[in-house]
Amino acid sequence: MDSIVAPVTALVPQPVGILRLSGANLWPRIQPLFPESPCPAPRKASLLTLRTHGQAIDSVLVLFFPAPQSFTGEDVVEIHAHGNPQNIRAILHSIEECGIRQAKPGEFSLRAYQNGKISLLKAESLHRMITAPTYGDFLSAHSSFSHPEDHPLVTIKEAFLDLLASFYAFLDYPEELTDSEHAYSHSLLFPKIHALQGLSREQLSLFRKNRRVFSSFSVLLAGPPNSGKSSLFNRLLQSDRAIVSPYPGTTRDLLEGRLSLPFGDLLLLDSAGFRSSNDLIEGMGISKAKKTIAHVDRLLWVTSPETLATLPFSTRTPSFTIWNKADLAPHPPTLLPDFVVSARTRKGLRRLLDALVSLAEDFYSHHTTSNPLLDSERQSQALSSFLKALTQAEDSLRSNAFDLALSSLEEARNLLEDGTGMISTEEIYDRVFSRFCLGK
Ligand SMILES: Nc1nc2c(ncn2[C@@H]2O[C@H](COP(=O)(O)OP(=O)(O)OP(=O)(O)O)[C@@H](O)[C@H]2O)c(=O)[nH]1
Ligand SMILES: [Mg+2]
User: Would you give the DSSP letter of residue 390?
Assistant: First the structure.
């Protein structure tokens, strides 16, 4: 396999930028970059001068993990350089000149999997650990990563193997068994099947509950045009992100901004004002805003003295009514708003923000679990198909069609093995690793 390299850290200005390399017999390949240094001692940081065509370009920390005691199972080198993105690009280029190609996303993890360093389930837990939107999700992924034996698919597989063993024993019963003994062992299979179905359904529903359009706590500003949604969006984010103008219909697309809070992000969304419009693009924005309402954790329905209106349809999304432009009229004539604010004078904004922050805190403390969960859509699909095959086996067993039951159980077994990582095809990269970030 050829040697690969990728930046592990983002290419943005920062104190340190890290490059990771993996391959067989790696040090001799990159030796030209460190002409005066011998191969660094394994797993010890060495401060070296990195040279391109003999010219010193940076002082870097180098870590060498010889095969097989490395993440990928091959020789791995990490170079910690000064994090200017231009510097990292230049070092990357010098490494490529040594005949080392840039890695594809997830290629390091793919090699770790191919070299038996991690199982497929562990690889997916690792991916979930890196991308987890909340600390609770991170802990859940971490617990699957460090205790793969507790992974829901492994627990289900154990219970399934027990069922399979009982089924084979039932099929093999000697002739001399009485009918009642036979019926007894037949009936023993059903509780096992039901327990497995319960376990699988529970995991599938937990996975669905955890799968959200917006992974962070999300708040949508919606309302009639010109009510001051974008002005509030900017004020809450303390940055001039959205265009504000006196012309109704200014905002078209959904705009996203984030407030980083100690327990997780608060995702704030600004949207197009609701009205009937003949403008194609504005209409698209309005329909996007309407669809988004169902996917957010909280709706802020913003009205103002010039644009008093109520939400034109009902929704299950909890909402606050905001009376904006209180500097023009301190009290709405009809509705009783949850918050009276003025984006212009900042009146009432602190109270609104405090309320949102406390909702976000509540969300992050309740909506996260550190219990092991399924890690990916792929696992969830495998488990759904397994459940179907299991239910088919149950039906066949009820009508004493044992051959059919056997073939459904064999199918269920294959599906579960697929889910836990016995995938036998090259599809594996496309299905699992290509979603990983670069350098992982
Ligand atoms: N007096 C007053 N004017 C405001 C206030 N908030 C916003 N405005 C003004 O109202 C106008 C519309 O503000 P926007 O923030 O663009 O309103 P919007 O709801 O985003 O409008 P659309 O994007 O068109 O739906 C601008 O001229 C703002 O300066 C406020 O609290 N008081
Ligand atoms: Mg706007």
Answer: H
